[in-house]
Structures are given as structure tokens and as C-alpha cells.
Amino acid sequence: MIPFLSKKIFLTRTEEDNLNFQKCFNLLKPKYYNNEVFVSVPLLDIFFVNIKELSIEETNLIFTSRYGIKAISELEDLKLKKTYCVGKSTAEVATQSGFKNICYSEEGNARSLINLISKDKDMLQTFHYLRGNKVSFDLKKELSDLGYKIKETIIYKQKNNKLSDKQKSLIMSGEIGGIIFFSASVAKIFCKDIKMVPDGFLFFCISDRVADNIIKSNIMGEYIIKVPLKPNIDSIIDLVCNEIF
To answer: Among positive and negative, which fits the CA dihedral 119, 123, 128, 129?
Structure first.
């Protein structure tokens, strides 16, 4: 075990995302061995809807997840449309996929994305929201209430996974000292599945909105919630490395 950690941390995204996180950790903290720090526990699986053709008349696209970008990455005719992304990481995936006209909110959440879109006062513009089958924030309703015309298409589906009895046991025995959440939906999955954590257990949350799901849950235990100043992977990694279990 590396010096600054005596316990491991659960990663809760998809297997691919957890692997990418560990690669980022290696680049930022090369002196540490991330296989001694993290355990991949995907609480979410993503399945892309089989869309060979998707005709979109609207002038603007909206993405609140990089999964949406990946789901339509082969549809070249969409890549010239103005593309609104929820945050920097989603925008980076859009850039890598060949989208040309990208805007994103610095804060990396749905409310800041609405503020970004609202800066354009042209109410004649139309938007197409490409999303998953489950959302924790009704973006379409919020934008519609402001007067924008919004169309939605579901282009990927999410499957929730539960913790195994062994994984729960690792938490309660103290072998796992914390868990990382990048989305409110995954935090909700965890909070519904487990009733108690040991005192001092750490929740690393990408944003205050994600942290609120833990605060409002019925999980027992004197746990600690950590939220980075910026909602990105680099800041989460810094949070982890500043902790001594």
C-alpha cells in the first residue's frame, strides 16, 4: 500500500471510465501505484441505441454526457451544428469526435448550461437534446419554461448495478475508505443500496449537487463529504491525494 493511503477507494463509473480515470491518475501522480489505490465497481452500464440515421432539423445540439457524444459520433452531418455541452470533459469528447462549433459551461452542471444557452436571446433558435433514458434533471422542461423550443431523442440507455454483498462487506470492514461519484444518478444508486458506512468514510463528489444526494439520503455513519473547487477529474484526484486515511 502506498504511503498516503492505507485504504482503497471505489470507482463507480463504467469499466471504461474507471480505466480512463486511473490513466489520468497515472499521468498526474506518476509516483503512486493506482492499482493499490482504486477498485473498479461500476454502478452503471451504458448501452447505445442502434441509430444508423438520425435526421435533426434543429440548429443546436445539447449534450449533458459524453455518452451522448459517443452514441452519435459516426453521424458526420451533425458535427457542423452548434453544440452545447454540460462541461469541459464532455466538450473534449465532442472535439475528439470531430464536432466543430462547441460551447460548454465552465461550472460543468445543468444549471450553468442553462445560463450559457440563455445568453443567446434569439428565441427563434431550436435545440435538440440528445440524452440517455434516465435523467436526474429535467433540462427540457427548464429550457421550455424559458421559451425555447426543445426536442429530445434518447440515444443511449443506462442500466443500474447494485453493490455485491462482498463489496458491502469491504466497506463495513473498513478495507474501503471512500468512494468517488461523478454523477447524481450513481450517488442515488449507492444511497439506495447501502444503509450505513463506517465513521470517517469519505465521499468524493464532483459537485455540490451530487453531494446533496448523500446529505438527503438515510445513510447512517459519521461520514465525510469532499467536493472539489472545480468539477473535473484533475480536482478530484487532488482531493484524493490530499487525504490521509
So the answer is: positive
